[in-house]
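Duplicate of earlier report; DeoR/GlpR transcriptional regulator input re-posted below.
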Amino acid sequence: MNTFYMTERQKVIIRELEIKNKISVVDLALKLNVTPETIRKDLSTLEARKKLRRIHGGAIQYFGLIKEPHFNKKVGISHNQKKLIGEAAATYIMDGETVVLDVGSTTLHIASSIKNVQNVTIVTNSLAAAEILNNRLENRLFDGKVIVLGGTTNPLQRSISGSLTNLLLENFYFDKAFISCGGINKDGICDFNIDEAAASSIMIKKSSQVYVVADSAKMNQRALFHIGSFSSIDYVITDSEMPNDWSKDAMVSGLHWISVGDSQ
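Output:
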């Protein structure tokens, strides 16, 4: 009785999503020769059936909040937006600073964008970021050193976390922390993995300035584990404007919101 029959247009939308990981209303309207409003209605219908998740200007693949996508899958989601965010975030890293990057596909783009800075110490629990940073050091794109935190590896997320990681983090003081997340809402930021969330929380606590990097797909989403509230965050770097209802909230009044482009 509850069988859901997709139209041919909706089937095309799902195929596009499987190929690209993120789809835009404008692009779909042009491809299918229909109005953007028609595409929006299709996306709403498909979202109700958990075939995709709506974001500003389009949709991404549906992921339940309990399960985190594989790291290699995450890298492909909102790739261009994450690249812009990473490039913008890297410009805040100054000569002589000690900074920490947590795990996540967006902080990976920060690692890929660090250049022309001197005597910088970068600490990370991301195996993927560490590899990129090491290559950039070898090629003299920046000057400094990279410290990879010890702990238990998570091969699927290319991360290091756990009690040893947290113990090591307690011994650092950072000028700046760059934190990714699985979701961002008015309560703050959250993530899927309790160990990685705990490490990010300590990074925040041990840093003079905290930058959250999150693409628009994370807005108004909740993951399982709380990382930190807005009172502990100084900057959010993203590809969308702050939601209108957030700006009236006292909890976000002191937050610097940096939008790096239009997510369409």
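The longest helix spans residues 8-20.

Merging into the original ticket.
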